Amino acid sequence: MTATVLVHGFGTSRHVWRRVLKDVEARAVDLPGFGDAAEMGRAGQTVGDGARALANMLRESGDAPYRIAAHSMGGKVALLLAARDPGLVSELFLLAPSPPTPEPMTPEGRATLRAAYGTPAALGAQYQDITRQPIPEQDFEQLIQDGLRASCEAWTAWTDVGSREDISGELHGLRLPITVLYSEDDPAISRTTIRSEVLARLPEARALPLQGSGHLIPLEQPEAVVALLQTTEGRP
């Protein structure tokens, strides 16, 4: 059976998958600057830096190729990994992914996100703003702790560098099953962005829209993620 690896999004850690991992056999990892890899965060780090770090983790495990499920920022990292190291990835599941093109954010939005670093109240407000379903108290507290633990350099680098990068030119040779699971009600990465900047650039991808969830799908609708990952090679 092909092993599954779970990749978190911006500001969170492998813990964002805790509700999914109750029902799915998989390995969740931390990207540089976050979770247990917080000390690896560097000023100006790029999507490519994240992809290289993820590739090194997967090579060390020695079980390639992997099915990779990646959320938000992690989706952009996983896409670049698949493009640059196709032998490591057999299938991609992208959950509310940051687009391969520059993520649409207003200057005010970027400033607010940047300023949330290190402040529990601001982090809590941020997560309240991007969710639509109640998050269990323990999971919400973990989100805050993950945000406080993250590297300041990595936090700023995603806001000012990674989220602005355009990696779409490297995706033309992708030849693997890709599923995009997203919410029609996501206030962080809108359905318009998903359709115009993700699905339009991955014409062979399968789109699975949800309703009622915000951006944190692994915590808001874990049952949808579990159902997806329990399929064989992305197909029922």
TrEMBL record:
One of its GO terms (cellular component) is membrane. One of its GO terms (molecular function) is hydrolase activity. Coiled coil: none annotated. The keyword Cell membrane does not apply. Keywords: Hydrolase. InterPro entries: AB_hydrolase_1, AB_hydrolase_fold, AB_hydrolase_sf. Residues 5-227 form the AB hydrolase-1 domain. The keyword Hydrolase applies. PANTHER family: AB HYDROLASE SUPERFAMILY PROTEIN YCLE, MONOACYLGLYCEROL LIPASE. This is Pimeloyl-ACP methyl ester carboxylesterase. It comes from Deinococcus humi. The lineage of its organism: Bacteria, Thermotogati, Deinococcota, Deinococci, Deinococcales.
